[in-house]
Design goal:
The protein has helices spanning 10-34, 41-52, 60-81, 85-89, 98-126, 132-149, 156-178, 205-241, 247-294, 296-299, 311-333, 336-364, 371-390, 397-416, and strands at residues 185-192, 195-202. The protein is mainly α and 417 residues long. Its main location: membrane. It comes from marine metagenome.
Length: 417
């Protein structure tokens, strides 16, 4: 019998933490700048292979741990940036409290991890989804491991490519913003009668990189969404309602206050449809997890890749996590009953949207996961619920809805990872 490979080692944990910090910061910047985030699994895998190849003893399992940690970090960052800034914009927070943000991210992240246990069987084993980025990451790791064993390229070539690309992007950004050699954005709008037609573009290394990662199909969809907004919806709305002042400023005001909610509605409908399609595989996956608990002693040794946390442990852990979630909401709302209700709402929506995020990752990849969309859907429902309970005079209703959305967003981000 061959000796098992080391998996969780000091160097894999240390490198995973370092890459998680770096890639989480990069994804946070990208999400706040462009409203989109990308998966860091493949870059993390390439960097890991390049760095760990410097050690005499390293293997594919260590590289997998590193890319998993790095990817989880950047995914959790996406969960935070789409929700927490709203608390400052609302005036509920005057600054970002590190401890509070860490608590929200930790609670939501752990809940997301626990939700993925039954989802793994439902989506990978039962539904057999493609998971394009997961498969691509596995192939990168496998190719790097085979090359290392064959004394060929050990991952340093990919690391060199990432370094050159980072240098080029940095030079572009310095020339663009530091020396003002060219404008970052070119936009314009014209009025034809009562309608406004606008068009614009943004030359950013980050956006170019996102387009390269998400691919042609998603890029075309993003462009189509922009055209629908600026060439169809804004002209129609401005013709119906009218506008005052500069055409470009008016177009931005209309888009910001009215038109972008068309996209939110489309994402909500898409998410609901995904849930409907996911129902049968999800039920089968949960049944398979329960059967695995019953048959664990009879089956003997279970292959490493087929081992799951027992579903009863998952249930106990989720019940235990209701306590910090309840205390988090109680601190804001000040009502035991409403805090308990919000905790239950968060768990229900956390599971539903973790399932949606995991399903979408399996279909179109983690980089194309509509985390912001499912978060907005959660906040809309929570807002309606709090409006019915508290009325319009509450000073904490909006902040409470954001807090529900924040935990759900972190859980869904990890679920899609």
């Amino acid at each position: 019998m061959s000796n098992p490979l080391s998996e969780i080692t000091v160097k894999s944990i240390f490198l995973g933490i370092i890459l998680s910090i770096i890639l989480a910061g990069a994804n946070a910047y990208l999400g706040l700048f462009a409203g989109m985030t990308v998966s860091a699994s493949i870059p993390a895998a390439v960097i890991s292979m390049g760095v760990l190849s410097m050690f005499k003893k390293s293997n594919i399992l260590e590289n997998n741990i590193v890319q998993t940690a790095a990817s989880a970090g950047e995914s959790l960052a996406a969960g935070v940036i789409f929700t927490i800034p709203a608390l400052v914009l609302l005036g509920y927070w005057t600054s970002f409290d590190y401890v509070e943000v860490a608590k929200i991210a930790a609670i939501g992240g752990v809940i997301g991890v626990l939700f993925t246990v039954p989802l793994r069987r439902a989506l990978i084993v039962t539904a057999k989804l493609k998971y394009p980025e997961g498969v691509a990451t596995a192939e990168v790791l496998r190719a790097g491991d085979e090359a290392r064993k064959g004394a060929e390229d050990d991952g340093s070539g990919g690391l060199k490519t990432i370094g050159i690309a980072s240098l080029v992007g940095g030079v572009m950004k310095v020339c663009q913003q530091g020396f003002a050699m060219w404008h970052a954005e070119v936009a314009g709008a014209m009025a034809f009668g009562k309608s406004i037609f606008g068009i614009g573009t943004d030359l950013s290394p980050a956006l170019i990189s996102v387009g390269y990662i998400v691919g042609r199909n998603i890029g075309i969809l993003v462009v189509a969404g922009g055209l629908i907004s600026w060439a169809v919806a804004i002209p129609i709305y401005s013709a119906m309602v009218g506008f005052e002042g500069d055409a470009l400023d008016s177009a931005w005001d209309i888009w910001n206050s009215k038109i972008r909610y068309l996209g939110v509605g489309a994402m909500v409908v898409g998410g609901v449809w995904s849930l409907i399609k996911l129902f049968n595989p999800l039920v089968k996956g949960i049944k398979a997890s329960l059967n695995a608990v019953k048959n664990r002693s009879a089956d003997g040794d279970v292959p490493l890749e087929d081992q799951d946390m027992p579903i009863n442990y998952v249930g106990i852990a989720l019940l235990a996590l209701l306590v910090p979630v309840f205390l988090l909401y109680l601190d804001i709302i000040g009502s035991v009953g409403i805090a308990a209700l919000l905790s239950i709402v968060m768990m229900v929506f956390g599971f539903l949207f973790s399932a949606v995020a995991a399903y979408m990752a399996g279909v179109v990849g983690s980089s194309n996961n509509p985390i912001s969309g499912v978060t907005i859907a959660t906040i809309l429902f929570s807002s309606l619920l709090l409006l019915a309970i508290l009325g319009t005079g509450s000073s904490v209703g909006a902040a409470s809805a954001i807090m529900v959305g924040a935990v759900v967003c972190c859980a869904a981000a990890i679920g899609g990872d």
